Amino acid sequence: MFLFGGAIEYFLLLGLIRFFLSLNYFLLILLRLEFIILSIFILLGYYVTFIILGREFIFLYLTMMICEGVFGLTILIYLTRFEGGDLFKLNI
């Protein structure tokens, strides 16, 4: 049981590191955010199975996850249509 939780926490940490290392393309940012959110969802599902009233929280988290994904795709379509692409020109 602890091996599964440790592996998912490793994926979450890996997703966070990869998210902060490359901030040039908006599509890659969205994909890494979805990876992080999916890792958190799996962790919540793993830990909330021991709590009886945790199912409502998982459904709320799923709803927020879907809203975040739709909002990100809307911004991506806006950037592609009006700016010509999803490349950010950042001077970091």
CATH topology: Helix Hairpins
Q: Which structural class is indicated by helix and strand composition?
A: mainly alpha
What general form does the structure show?
flat
The strand count comes to 0
**Beginning-to-end CA distance, first to last residue:** 41 Å
Computed Rg: 16 Å
Proportion in β-strands: under 5%
Taking the sheet with the most strands, its summary is: none
Order of helices and strands: HHH
Helix proportion: over 70%
Named CATH architecture: Orthogonal Bundle
* Top CATH class: Mainly Alpha
What does the average pLDDT come to?
76
Uncertain ranges = none
The number of helices is: 3
Query: How many domains is the backbone divided into?
Result: 1
Notes on the protein architecture:
About 80% of the residues lie in helices and about 0% in strands. By secondary structure, it is mostly helical. The longest helix has 29 residues. The chain has one domain: Helix Hairpins. It starts with a helix and ends in a 9-residue tail after the last helix. The chain is built from three helices and no strands.
